[in-house]
């Protein structure tokens, strides 16, 4: 395949222009990179029926795929009028994630864009939706879109965590903020930077009432250290003071409240692979996916937006 960097839009099976479709088109135009659109079609009823009438079902499946390909080709022609280079394809496959990884390895892909798929908590216990697979295991940034109010984002929010001071954590914060800054610049959007200081974590190891003065001292010391680290990070990336926000509280509710108040279009944050119980419960990024009032762009360690 071509070595030109691409955006990859995971189109839904339905033939309609969804919020992710509009966001992908806007970003391809803003970033001046080609857009590849792929739709993964798979109808379980047809697959099962094919066991009994394989030739008839093959014809029905081919007709369905042909119609979908024609629709995507028409959409690509419309986008080309806006000087966006678009390629499309439709794939009949039951496991889209494996196919997505192949695209990432061969294209190459700098950003995956997809409509956020909401799942109930009960369903998340028993299987991993494609969104969660992408957040946890996809090696490139993933943008999960919830609405198309502003196809080209106007307000971008970068979320960083300066609680830990290991070198890899500091580098990851720089990667997150670099990606958010690049996105804001390419879209001519305003960038806000937030760190949420969850002081309740200081008290998670219950040592009895006698430990409260000590815990309070730790709270003050950690808060001061985090504030200094946050200020240094913002300074390195040239974030102006009015756009720096050091908030105390529970991370997910605080971020959601801030994003709603500031009319944020995209939250840019980091996500890493988790295992065991933490994987079942989900990371902050996954919780935000279902609670944030806007779209989420997840950055993985050692990867950022390019172009």
TrEMBL record:
UspA domain boundaries: 18-145, 175-300
Protein localization: Cytoplasm
Predominant location category: cytoplasm
Keywords, in A-Z order: Cytoplasm
Single GO cellular component term: cytoplasm
Family matches, as SUPFAM superfamilies: Adenine nucleotide alpha hydrolases-like
InterPro entries for this protein: Universal_stress_UspA, UspA
UniProt family annotation: Belongs to the universal stress protein A family.
The protein's role, per its UniProt record: Required for resistance to DNA-damaging agents.
Protein name, entry field: Universal stress protein
